[in-house]
Amino acid sequence: MEKPLTGNFRSDKQAVSLEDYERAGGYQGLHKALTIAPADVGELVKKSGLRGRGGAGFPTGMKWSFVPMGKDAPHPKYLVVNADEMEPGTFKDRALMERDPHQLIEGVIVAAYAIEADIAYIFLRGEYVCSHDRLERALAEAKTKNYVGHNILGSGYNLEIHLHVSAGRYICGEETALLNALEGKRAHPRTKPPFPQVSGLFGKPTIVQNVETLCNVHHIVKNGPDWFRGLSKTEDGGTKLYGVSGKVKKPGLWELPMGTPMREILEDHAGGMRDGLHFRGLLPGGASTDFLIEEHLDTPMDYGNVQKAGSRLGTGTMVVLDDKTCPVGMVWNLEHFFAQESCGWCTPCWSGLSWTEKILLAMEQGKGSRQDLDTLTFQTKFLAPGNTFCAFAPGAVEPLQSALKYFGDDFRKHVDEQRCPWK
């Protein structure tokens, strides 16, 4: 199968050099894009069916279509790369940036051209030191070849790209909180509307896009939307980086056709569960998605089918639960993380997650009660969409609400036996 995103990866895990990238066809998508009108580049992406790979899955071409275009559009316009990868269990963007940094840079330039952006920022997670060093070097190389800067390749198009190291908060996955952080403010989400496409960074039109999403863009321009759709097993176009973590034989990351079944990823690529362990469930798209169980393993991993099964594709990086690990302890660990990462902007989020985490810890310590089970169920509704300022808290309680559904006996044992039965 074709692997446009990882096909250039070196076996020694070093970054692809500019020379090797160009030899493999790199920057040809940019050359082609610069011969096409910006709006037509956006139309190619729209026809490809590319959806955001950061978690929400919003159609990329449609998102770009909301940006004001033409001579009367406000400037400067911005493209911001969300490279602040903080979803627990997720490491796909790091791999793309460390192993093939020019691929991301080419995708940034083509996407920026499509929306007539003047300036691009790569908002990078602070802990990603290797990504920083390799992107910094690749950016310098790209400038020497006039892929970035003034009058790119003689086209008349100008673009600055800046690498910004994030202070690191999970809430920066919410695009308007990221924009506030980039402006030097506290990372609080903004009221919408106005949406960033119209009034984003410094009040100007802005597109915020995930690393993996942008890495697809120039391949689409180079090879066409039909080629991209043909890579997938389902109606969602392209390939997808799928990851597996947990007690499997071969945890890792693989580029596979969009819509590859969970069972194939778990058993064929991750090697199945370690000896002596059995599968109990998984979070299909990182920590902020609902658990799925054995009966869901034949579900194609795409946006629509995972949603029908009761969860979300999210980042496409599974976290696996085995039969020797306490699900209550696992959920407590996740809610502890989310309670710490709440930005504190709205009361249901900071207060609700804090109480949720304390109740789960009490259960793990043998201090839970039957009433606590009702309180936890209430919290999953109290923090549901529509009750909080952004999507942070609703995502945070997804593993809890599904754990109560599928592993309810484990919660009741903690209460009835006044201890964690797994210890």
UniProtKB/TrEMBL annotation:
<comment type="function">
    <text>NDH-1 shuttles electrons from NADH, via FMN and iron-sulfur (Fe-S) centers, to quinones in the respiratory chain.</text>
</comment>
<dbReference type="GO" id="GO:0016491">
    <property type="term" value="F:oxidoreductase activity"/>
</dbReference>
<keyword id="KW-0479">Metal-binding</keyword>
<keyword id="KW-0004">4Fe-4S</keyword>
<dbReference type="InterPro" id="IPR019554">
    <property type="entry name" value="Soluble_ligand-bd"/>
</dbReference>
<protein>
    <recommendedName>
        <fullName>NADH-quinone oxidoreductase subunit F</fullName>
        <ecNumber>7.1.1.-</ecNumber>
    </recommendedName>
</protein>
<feature type="domain" description="NADH-ubiquinone oxidoreductase 51kDa subunit iron-sulphur binding">
    <location>
        <begin position="328"/>
        <end position="373"/>
    </location>
</feature>
<dbReference type="Pfam" id="PF10531">
    <property type="entry name" value="SLBB"/>
</dbReference>
<keyword id="KW-1278">Translocase</keyword>
<dbReference type="GO" id="GO:0046872">
    <property type="term" value="F:metal ion binding"/>
</dbReference>
<keyword id="KW-0560">Oxidoreductase</keyword>
<dbReference type="InterPro" id="IPR019575">
    <property type="entry name" value="Nuop51_4Fe4S-bd"/>
</dbReference>
<dbReference type="Pfam" id="PF01512">
    <property type="entry name" value="Complex1_51K"/>
</dbReference>
<dbReference type="InterPro" id="IPR037207">
    <property type="entry name" value="Nuop51_4Fe4S-bd_sf"/>
</dbReference>
<dbReference type="GO" id="GO:0051539">
    <property type="term" value="F:4 iron, 4 sulfur cluster binding"/>
</dbReference>
<dbReference type="InterPro" id="IPR011538">
    <property type="entry name" value="Nuo51_FMN-bd"/>
</dbReference>
<dbReference type="Pfam" id="PF10589">
    <property type="entry name" value="NADH_4Fe-4S"/>
</dbReference>
<keyword id="KW-0874">Quinone</keyword>
<comment type="subunit">
    <text>Composed of 13 different subunits. Subunits NuoCD, E, F, and G constitute the peripheral sector of the complex.</text>
</comment>
<dbReference type="GO" id="GO:0051287">
    <property type="term" value="F:NAD binding"/>
</dbReference>
<dbReference type="InterPro" id="IPR037225">
    <property type="entry name" value="Nuo51_FMN-bd_sf"/>
</dbReference>
<dbReference type="GO" id="GO:0048038">
    <property type="term" value="F:quinone binding"/>
</dbReference>
<dbReference type="GO" id="GO:0010181">
    <property type="term" value="F:FMN binding"/>
</dbReference>
<keyword id="KW-0520">NAD</keyword>
<dbReference type="InterPro" id="IPR011537">
    <property type="entry name" value="NADH-UbQ_OxRdtase_suF"/>
</dbReference>
<keyword id="KW-0411">Iron-sulfur</keyword>
<keyword id="KW-0288">FMN</keyword>
<keyword id="KW-0408">Iron</keyword>
<comment type="similarity">
    <text>Belongs to the complex I 51 kDa subunit family.</text>
</comment>
<keyword id="KW-0285">Flavoprotein</keyword>
